[in-house]
Amino acid sequence: MTEPLPLTGVRVADLSRVLAGPYATMLLADMGAEVIKVEQPGRGDDTRAWGPPWAGGEAAYYLSVNRNKRSLAVDLKDPDGLAAVQELCAGADVVVQNFRPGVIDRLGLGHAAVSVRNPAVVYCSVSGFGPEHEPATRPGFDIVVQAESGLMGATGPAEGPASKVGVAITDVLTGLNAAVGILGALFRARATGRGEEITVSLVNSSLSGLVNLTQQALVTGTEPARIGNAHTTIVPYQAFPTADADIVIAAGNDTLYRRLCEALDRPDLARDPRYATNPERVTHREELVGEITATLTTRPADHWMGLLVEAGVPVGRVRGVLDALRTAQARGDDVLRTVEHPTAGLLEQVRAGFRLENTPPPLTAPPLLGQHSREILTELGLSADRIDAMVERGTVEQAAS
Questions:
Q1: What's the pTM?
Q2: Binning pLDDT at 50, 70 and 90, where does residue 228 land?
Q3: What b/e readout covers 256-291, taking b as 16+ CB neighbours within 10 angstroms?
Q4: E strands, 68-184, where?
Q5: Could you list the active site residues?
Q6: Average pLDDT of the chain to the nearest whole number
Q7: The predicted structure's pLDDT at residue 134
């Protein structure tokens, strides 16, 4: 028999939508938590409409962050619907929400109201800019926060415009931060019975996620320069062209640099005092990059990949997303899992970045809107007649089985 997952027995009321909150709750679900996703009848999570592409009528965006959950589609403007969700939160170990400031409190679902009935609750609020950031009601989507946090300003070619990262990375960082905060608070709550209120924002997640760049800016008092696919303080550490494709080389210390020179059959670059140490290589970046590029462009990528891997130099081919997934899977990294979805059929999904070796996580398909409404409301103590009445008047949506 397999061991219980780390969060087996933990119930999460997920009142969040889009990416940061749902990503956090999916990670909790991957660790065994029971996650109940509360959605609006008729439309559900915003990402259900963020297509194409679609699979079985479901947007790929929505499918990416909602596995291992159950969906309760209920109208919070209806007194019975609101009462049901209040009951759900009263019995939950964790509540996650990203309503606009003030709205959640008016619904009686804010931390103050929930903790009166549920003192041990771990309550996590996700926002774009955080409760102290003025103006308090300012909405924040990833691209806005990438701009405001300096992430966009630090990304892109030196002579070109600022660029956003290709994925909504501030949401992903926020989801990870939310999950970490929730896990820490759950650990204490189990030991003491005391709950915790956690606030996590996209802008704080992005600012902290800039790590060395923020410290560099504080130390120098100047803005870090955009440097494209290179590194501000390590050389060579960037993308290079070869005869047929781009590769990335990351010689992060002097030993790796000397190995690189040997693999390239360029002992002159190892002996040159201008390149003897990393600070010298940073100073003479342009000349060194030119020399390495001139050598790399004489042979195809596979030739250099073989030599550099054998030499122990960190190197990688610049791949597309699908190519990267298929390559990782082919090389033995069990990155993909397949689940049977009620409308999409067999659906491939990407595993979380962590592995629980003793207790492989469950995998259930991202739910249809309202797929589990009846069973969840029954678990909350509502009678079949009452649920029928709520479905009939549109307060509750139950997906067709």
A1: 0.93
A2: very high
A3: bbbbbbebbebeebbebeebeebebbeebbeebbeb
A4: 69-74, 94-97, 122-127
A5: 171
A6: 94
A7: 81
